[in-house]
Structure to design on (162 residues):
């Protein structure tokens, strides 16, 4: 049972730590560094770099979510059932669905806009529908990650209590 719990906690730590590092360290550092190095195209390069990092991180998130569900079910089958088992499974499943939606639908549409525009959507005129949609998708992506971050913190709290 202990090895399963260890795998569960490690998968949760990787997912939570990854989200935290992306938002608090990676994105600000990439954008600040590349914009300072090349004011003309640094922001566009930073967007491309962070988009690639985020796409790869989503694959890690999918793996962590699946691993969390598998280990929770295995712990329940091998006994004793983890406290709040159904709620935990629901939170993990919800986090995984949010991550898949964000990674496939939201990032897919962001990539399509960037390919169509061929430059930074922020350089488009204020009222351009592509710029408006890009900004809305960027906000949505951030909010979806915050939902997953909150879910991971709830799961971590339960683990810490036990």
């Amino acid at each position: 049972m202990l090895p399963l719990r260890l795998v569960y906690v490690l998968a949760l730590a990787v997912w939570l730590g990854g989200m935290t590092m992306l938002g608090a360290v990676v994105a600000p550092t990439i954008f600040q560094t590349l914009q300072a190095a090349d004011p003309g195209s640094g922001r566009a390069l930073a967007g491309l770099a962070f988009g690639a990092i985020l796409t790869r991180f989503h694959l890690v998130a999918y793996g962590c979510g699946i691993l969390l569900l598998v280990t929770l079910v295995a712990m329940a089958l091998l006994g004793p059932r983890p406290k709040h088992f159904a709620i935990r499974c629901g939170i993990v499943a919800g986090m995984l669905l949010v991550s898949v939606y964000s990674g496939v639908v939201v990032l897919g549409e962001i990539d399509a806009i960037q390919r169509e525009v061929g430059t930074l959507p922020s350089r488009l005129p204020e009222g351009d529908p592509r710029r408006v949609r890009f900004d809305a998708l960027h906000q949505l992506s951030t909010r979806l990650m915050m939902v997953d971050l909150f879910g991971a913190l709830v799961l971590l709290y339960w683990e810490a209590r036990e």
